[in-house]
Amino acid sequence: TANTGTSTNALRSLLNGDFSVWGLVSNVVAPLWQGGRLRAQIDRAEAQTAEILATYVNTALVAYAEVETTLAAEAFLSDREQHLVVSVEQARAAERLADERYSTGLDAYITVLDSQRSAFQAEADLIAARRLRLDNRVDLYLALGGGFEQLDSLLELTATN
């Protein structure tokens, strides 16, 4: 009868929840009994990673396209500006010629006024083209990742030097 008391105590300690074997078994088996919750968390994390990657790739492609567009526009605007510089030079030469012809009595003053108007229009076109080119350069700066905060600090640094 003395042995039965100790085996009852041993059985009792085996069934006790604080017994280390049960804790170990529950830690091993618990992930199996979560009904796929861990797999769902892994799937969700993988989906989030794929979404972030797709967003990054899309952002990179958009940035690349913006840079490509602004570089192409820069080339076009540069050519346009060069042509307009020639146009201004020709308009000023025509203005001088009209003034000389008026001074010698070969032409009416309206011709001088018309040539001045043409020269002023050519200069206005050149100024507008230069402004477009500067705007395009700002767009290029932004497409390359620059920001106005960085630009402000650069302007402050330039002003102090």
From TrEMBL:
Coiled-coil annotated spans: none
Molecular-function annotations in GO: efflux transmembrane transporter activity
Identification of the protein by name: Uncharacterized protein
Species of provenance: marine metagenome
